[in-house]
Write a structure and sequence with these properties.
Layout: H1 2-38, E1 48-50, E2 53-54, E3 70-85, E4 88-95, E5 103-107, E6 111-118, E7 129-130, H2 140-143, E8 149-156, E9 161-166, H3 172-177, E10 181-187, E11 197-206, E12 216-217, H4 222-227, E13 232-235, E14 248-251, E15 255-264, E16 269-274, E17 278-282, E18 289-293, E19 295-298, E20 302-309, E21 314-320, H5 323-328, E22 332-338, H6 381-400, H7 418-422, H8 424-433, E23 435-441, E24 444-450, H9 457-468, H10 480-489
Parallel strand pairs: 1-3, 3-6, 4-12, 5-10, 11-15, 14-22
Antiparallel strand pairs: 2-5, 3-4, 6-8, 7-9, 9-10, 11-13, 15-20, 16-19, 16-21, 17-18, 17-20, 21-22, 23-24
The structure holds copper (II) ion.
Keywords: Copper, FAD, Flavoprotein, Heme, Iron, Metal-binding, Nitrate assimilation, Oxidoreductase, Periplasm, Repeat, Signal
Catalytic activity: nitric oxide + Fe(III)-[cytochrome c] + H2O = Fe(II)-[cytochrome c] + nitrite + 2 H(+)
Subunit structure: Homotrimer.
Length: 490
């Protein structure tokens, strides 16, 4: 702005000196233009465009030479069950239905209008903190959204680079641990140099109640997460997301660019491709380019762009070189390269069969229905306790925890809960219809959302009987009739 005024003043002066000074005027003009381009906040946008979003390992079309635009991003949050590894189920919380979330591709100067949509079937409120945003909370404060709602905010991309986004709703670590992270790329004006293949890979660590490989639906384990004892460390949300038939591919002679992120929540990644050397690494996703790199460090909540030309065919293994994570916890992916051998570059035998998992993995997350517990009515108090415990472990456990102890500042305790013990009809109503607003449990304030639980009257009776007869509560027995009475009052 200042420069423009200055040059206007200059313009007045030169009026009289016409020809002689004319070249100086042009120089001033040129400088003005350069100034404008360097200040990304001033880059004009005059067209609107719906952003292409892609699930990993794919990335949207490069920006190329397009001008800055108003870019509309519509991101839907989905909480859904998926498979961590063979026989192990996990309820993922996702941006766009995949872990990592949908890839967003922008250029510097874009005005991003972000629509964050929380699917009505979800249980929890969420938000988004994009590291590419200049503003409080990276957008988190403006995007906090309850199930069945959509929030809109907008931001201008000021700095080129590869950035992580993640959910920042309390307990933040839990939301990230359940898969709520992804990457947003801000390309410089004119775009990144052209390459032959581009892929999207993101590491994450997972914490499950059972040990690595223990079958069944595995809930999140808060204590292991706090202790940083990961059961799984994986690329793209599950063991084998990028191995065997799901491997990424290239042809001999092609240049491959990997957009690599690390969602954490806890572990940093020593990213390495066995049998390749990175020709170029955009260190930490920024402007600095390092060359001829073997292993690059990707911080939790950080990213890197790595590029290399593939010279010989074979299967190249991508790992976190903290190597037990690769071979024992899942942090292993494959790049399959086809083409002519080049004995000068590499003469030896190349095996591509030793790390194949049994059978092809599932690439997209299955959208299975809610778990419906048994509809058989309990015949005795013991049976009620048994069925109630099952329902508790399937439905309430993830939030209220194994011993009903809850999680400070997020989920109130059910163990020895004065709030619970004071009013059984209120407790029935909470399980049937959910609860929002401030409550006080054992002297601590909570102000969050519990969504309604889809359970039958029998199941509500059983689960509450179990809760009331555990962890020091008052021993109330809840019957199906009591539940129906509360239901019918509505
Ligand atoms: Cu979240």
């Amino acid at each position: 702005m200042k420069t423009t005024q200055k040059s206007k003043r200059k313009l007045k002066l030169v009026k009289h000196l016409a020809l002689l000074i004319a070249p100086m005027f042009f120089v001033a003009c040129f400088n003005d233009k350069k100034e404008e381009a360097e200040n990304a906040a001033e880059i004009p946008v005059n067209q609107e465009m719906i952003a292409e979003l892609t699930a990993p390992p794919h990335v949207p079309t490069p920006v190329g030479t397009r001008k800055a635009k108003k870019l509309i991003v519509k991101m839907e949050i989905l909480e859904e069950e998926g498979e961590m590894t063979d026989g192990v189920k996990y309820v993922y919380w996702t941006f766009g239905g995949s872990v990592p979330g949908s890839f967003i591709r922008t250029r510097v100067g874009d005005e991003v209008e972000f629509h964050l949509q929380n699917h009505p079937d979800n249980k929890l409120p969420h938000n988004i903190d994009l590291h590419a945003v200049t503003g409080p909370g990276g957008g988190a404060e403006s995007s906090f959204v309850a199930p069945g709602h959509s929030k809109v905010f907008s931001f201008k991309t000021l700095n080129p680079g590869l950035y992580v986004y993640h959910c920042a709703t309390a307990p933040v670590g839990m939301h990230i641990a359940n898969g709520m992270y992804g990457l947003i790329l801000v390309e410089p004006a004119g775009g990144l140099p052209k390459v032959d293949k581009e892929y999207y890979i993101m590491q994450g660590d997972f914490y499950t109640k059972g040990a690595n490989g223990e079958r069944g639906l595995q809930p999140f384990d808060m204590q292991k997460a706090v202790d940083e004892h990961a059961d799984y460390v994986v690329f793209n949300g599950k063991v084998g997301a990028l191995t065997g038939d799901n491997a990424i591919t290239a042809k001999v002679g092609e240049t491959v660019r990997l957009f690599v992120g690390n969602g954490g929540p806890n572990l940093v990644s020593s990213f390495h491709v066995i049998g390749e050397i990175f020709d170029k690494v955009h260190v930490e996703g920024g402007d600095m380019i390092n060359e001829n790199v073997q292993t690059t460090l990707i911080p939790a909540g950080g990213a890197a762009i790595v590029e290399f030309k593939v010279d010989v065919p074979g299967t190249f293994i991508l790992v976190d070189h903290s190597i037990f994570r690769a071979f024992n916890k899942g942090a292993l992916a494959m790049l399959k390269v086809e083409g002519e051998e080049d004995k000068k570059v590499y003469s030896g035998e190349i095996r591509d069969d030793i790390y194949l998992p049994e059978g092809p993995g599932i690439q997209t997350m299955p959208t299975t229905d809610e778990i419906v517990a048994s509809e058989v009515p309990a015949k005795s108090f013991e049976e009620q306790m048994e069925f109630g415990k099952q329902a508790y472990m399937q439905t309430c456990f993830a939030c209220h925890q194994g011993e009903g102890q809850g999680i400070p500042n997020a989920f109130p305790p059910l163990a020895n809960s004065d709030y619970l013990n004071a009013d059984v009809n209120r407790a029935i109503d909470i399980v049937l219809n959910g609860l929002t607003g401030e409550i006080t449990v054992n002297g601590e304030k909570y102000n969050s959302v519990m969504t309604r639980q889809s359970l039958s009257s029998d199941e509500v009776a059983n689960v509450l009987t179990y809760v009331y007869n555990s962890w020091g509560n008052n021993g109330t027995v809840v019957t199906k009739e009591m539940v129906e009475k509360v239901k019918n009052k509505k």
